[in-house]
Amino acid sequence: MDRTPKRESTGSDFAPLRMTLRDGRSATIREIRPDDADAFRTALERLSADTLHSRFFSSIRPTPAMIERAVRTDAERERALVAVTGGAATPTIAGGGRCISAEDRECGEFAVMVADEWRGTGLASGIMKALIRDARARGLKRMEGHVLAENRSMLDLARRLGFAVGASEEGPAVKLVWLDLGATA
Predict the structure, then answer these.
(1) CB of 95 within 8 A of CB of 83?
(2) Per-residue DSSP letters for the chain?
(3) Which are the contacts of 74, defined by CB distance < 8 A and separation ≥ 6?
(4) Under 8 Å CB-to-CB from 41, ≥6 apart: which residues?
(5) pLDDT at 7
């Protein structure tokens, strides 16, 4: 396990993105911050077992260590975004995503999750597009993720965004999706 001290993300190099969703609601996509811990915990606790399974490949429940790790990112290697709704005083996290670069800084592995009540609104697409733009800006050459084969909506989104879909070394229940970041999306 790498115990090297990590520089926390300051949020200074990712400009927040405001988006209007298909149903007319709006969300702001921005970097996650340490002060998002309570809102992030609440968001995870409200997720259905199916949504947790799609994201984590199991129906886990959040632990304090998991929350702490999620809100304190390694600025050298990862970008973690949240989609926030509501007012500044009481933000609600409706979804999020992250992309962690490999040691070689050429490939980044992504993951995205959207709260049940926000599915089908275009929020996952907005988060993915933001992660792709950011990965390109950070100089990554490839982005990839592991998606459950039964998660048709994420596989369809990946295809629409130009990702290739193939077999994963994790077995037939998981697909590997990847995008050459030199190509235009």
Answers:
(1) yes
(2) ------PBP-STTS--EEEE-TTS-EEEEEE--GGGHHHHHHHHHTS-HHHHHHHHSS-----HHHHHHHHS-BTTTEEEEEEEES-SSS-EEEEEEEEEE-TTSSEEEEEEEE-GGGTTTTHHHHHHHHHHHHHHHTT-SEEEEEEETT-HHHHHHHHHTT-EEEE-TT-TTEEEEEEETTS--
(3) 6, 7, 8, 9, 100
(4) 62, 67
(5) 39
Given the candidates 3.40.630.30, 1.20.1250.20, 3.40.718.10, 3.55.40.10, the CATH classification of the domain at 17-142 is 3.40.630.30
How do residues 139-166 score in pLDDT, each as one tens digit?
999 999 999 999 999 999 999 999 999 9
Q: What are the beta bridge partners of residue 96? A: 82, 113
**What's the mean pLDDT when you consider all of the chain?**
86
pLDDT digits (tens, 9 = 90+) for 64-99: 888 888 899 888 889 999 999 987 677 799 999 999
Give me the residue spans of the domains in the chain: 17-142
pTM of the model: 0.86
